[in-house]
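thought: fold this chain, then report.
action: predict
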Amino acid sequence: MRLAGRTGIVTGAARGIGAVTARALAVEGVNLTLFDRDGDGVTDVAREIAELGVRAIPVHGDVTNADDRARLVSVAEQELGPVDVLVNNAAIIEWVPFVQQSADRITEMVETNLTAPLLLARAVLPQMVQRRTGHLVTLCSLEGKVGIPHTATYGATKAALLVWNAALRAELDGSGVGVTAIAPGYVTGAGMWAAWNLPAPPLSGPVTPEKVANAVVRALRDNPQEIIVRSTPTRPLLAVAAIRPEIAGWLLKVMGIDKQMKSLISK
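observation:
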């Protein structure tokens, strides 16, 4: 996909990976509609991005609210034209033993992390297919490939997104619409580790938000099915874990992830 002059939506754009991704797309010349529950934050990001010479429209709302999703798509189309790119980034995480997680919180996480991305994609796909152009990019996680203790619900939603991404890509083969999942490892300077002012475990292969944003740009240009973003080799470890799942738990302890997850819970 040639990016200059295209139009895109980025959810969860007020901070972290969403904001950095929005800036990376703006540098490439993509006009953007930015969506987030933090109205002031997303307005600030839009104002900053507009200085890069593109149009940036902030929209305040909640991805779990059907009216807000409909308004987001309507504003994007009215202000910028048909949507060429959807970056499903908005997500929430909670560090808690599953047996202690409330039913309401589980429902909220599934609706935010899984249901909303599917329904937003469903809202923009018909026009993309009709125009035979467009791209869906979904921010997943390596936690969707290897179960991490104390974030079971989060991992479940990301695993589901990876399967959905693969199935949807097969359905849309030959349609002109690209579908890519981005699966980062732990991210420094954004997300859960930054929220607690803790460094990601060094052996986990942490990456910066900028590397994740660069992967989004690469996804739009090259249309791979999946991009893993990690600073150390990953696929051999995933292959071993797939063949011998019990090894994955041992690796988490060696990397120090299990210990640090428990430290987050104790805060």
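thought: worth noting. The longest strand covers residues 177-184.
final: tokens above.
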